[in-house]
């Protein structure tokens, strides 16, 4: 273990060199690495290594200043005219005796006349 840790001024706690912290934190960021196992290998507390890793990530991934990007706005093209006229909506219901005839949208007038005549007779 090459930590070169020195006793700090608070209750005999160790102060680790910045390059040691950075190296271990970088190692702890690698996929598949167990932070607890890495901490045990270097005889340090796992919570301390988690803290170093969190601090390293905060520095590496700190938000950058926002930048404005150029935008080209094109005028919207006029909508193409409809090819087909929309069928009129709605329905007509005709009751003749017990028969009910429902007519949806457009219907051929001659055919409707024939159906209604056959129902009356």
From TrEMBL:
GO molecular function ontology, one term from the record: transposase activity
Domain of life from the UniProt record: Bacteria
NCBIfam families assigned: IS66_ISRel24_TnpA
A Gene Ontology BP annotation from the UniProt entry: DNA transposition
Name by which UniProt lists this protein: Transposase family protein
PANTHER family: TRANSPOSASE INSC FOR INSERTION ELEMENT IS2A-RELATED
SUPFAM superfamilies assigned: Homeodomain-like (SSF46689)
InterPro entries in alphabetical order: Homeodomain-like_sf (IPR009057), Transposase_8 (IPR002514)
